[in-house]
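Ticket #389: bound-state structure for magnesium ion.
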Amino acid sequence: MKSLLVLGSSGSIGRQTLEVVRAQPGRLSVAGLAARGSWELLAAQAQEFRPRFVALTDAEAARRLAPLLPLGTVLFSGPEAVLELCNAAAYDVAVHGIVGAAGLPASVAVLARGKDLALANKESLVLAGAELVELARTRGATILPVDSELCAIFQCLRGESLERVRAVHLTASGGPFRDADLATLEQATPAGALRHPTWSMGPRISIGSATLMNKALEVLEVHHLFGVAPENVHVWIHRQSVIHSMVEFVDGSVMAQLGPPDMRGPLHYCLFHPERAPSSLRGFQLDLFARLSFETVDPHRFPALALGYDCARRGGDSGAVLNGADEVLVEGFLAGKLRLTEIAPIAADVLAKRASPAQGVAAALRADRDARALARLRIDREERAASTP
Ligand code: MG
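RESOLUTION: The complex was predicted; output attached.
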């Protein structure tokens, strides 16, 4: 029996992880659950999965949760609760589905203990990929990428040598606006941008799919996790989201990993790694797999993608800057404070202002904080400009 920590158990990844656990009775157990403030859902999850520890960052929510927990369950609360959980619990794998740069310290804590990290928090790799890969290596832990594209590459590379990789082909659904012209993109509403054509995901990744910022971050993730140079990472619009990504080797052979778009697939793979365990998830389906297409990305409609390549070339803290700015700009867009098409140009300005060659986790967290402040300033300025007659 493998025991898990589920960080972000109330979110999209956390809930799907628990579905995988439920579908594998007697094979996976839950040692700990963490969320920000969803105390009612956490109470239900704790009753069902009986973890030894739970953590809630919101102290008020934790007070409400406390009386609803099974006897003997230990509750951590407050800003350090997730880290306390990562350090106290006994587990084999931590599934990390917390969204945002705030998830980086938990990734460090898990790997520092030599535990495997099933990583859906892409910000960890974007902010401090090189440091996390090195930490995993020295502590004998494995970073298992849950992100479907990265999981596909990870599977294609099994038994292969990274020196024999010629290129990585990252697929992108293109999001809800893949066929929209610039004028339509400028008028995009939060509701329209959240309507993803193939995947069901949280709001931040959904908006990132609409701008392709999500793919920009994945270019950085691939660069850090697999050590592939940015010029050898190619992005293709693949509408069907069936091929999750491909690896091209030096002999011209191209390996792909295919499956219906369902996050439980990569989660199942990561939770049982290195075993390939049976599941009831569907595989080949003629109606889904019959027509697979690839198109290039239009850089004028999706300028965010180039920023990922830019950061991979710059190195230093640039990934942290790009991500921090994007997190704030996505919130601003969802709150109706700026247009979807303003996200990439403002993020580019913040990059130009703040990115530096500084390396390391501490530098990344500083760059994240500064980038957020700069992005907030820009949103305020645009708002004032818009309200001035
Ligand atoms: Mg992805």
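RESOLUTION NOTES: The pocket of magnesium ion is lined by residues 147-149, 218 (CB under 6 Å).
TICKET STATUS: resolved
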